[in-house]
Design brief:
Elements (H helix, E strand, L loop, with lengths): L7 H23 L4 H17 L6 H13 L12 H32 L4
Length: about 120
């Protein structure tokens, strides 16, 4: 995420990502059905999208988001100790975290393309 950004906003965006990522992992393992955590992850994703995603990171973010959505339930057949279910839950929660950031980055990119000038 935007390593070049400095100041308080860059710091907040960085920690929103770290906290969101850890929360997504914990929620996938311990609280897969908790809707409050889903709302918190969406809010953190919005913060990440506004504060952390730069123009040069846009394509990488979209590619990572698509990959998370596509492979989200790929581990479902692993039935031993519910490993597949837990991994699916974790990937799903991480996708919930990064989806709002990807949407915001996509809108920013569309805005940049549609903006007159240059």
């Amino acid at each position: 995420m935007a390593a070049g950004r400095k100041g308080v906003l860059g710091f907040v965006g960085f920690w929103a990502f770290i906290v969101g990522f850890i929360l997504a992992i914990l929620a996938g393992i311990f609280w897969p059905g908790n809707q409050t955590i889903v709302v918190v992850l969406v809010i953190l994703g919005i913060i990440i999208g506004f504060l952390n995603v730069s123009a040069k990171e846009f394509m990488l973010l979209l590619l990572a988001t698509i990959a998370l959505v596509v492979v989200g339930n790929a581990f479902a057949p692993l039935g031993t100790l519910h490993v597949g279910e837990v991994l699916g839950n974790i990937l799903s929660r991480i996708a919930i975290l990064v989806a709002p950031a990807a949407i915001i980055a996509a809108v920013k990119a569309l805005w940049a393309v549609a903006k007159p000038g240059d």
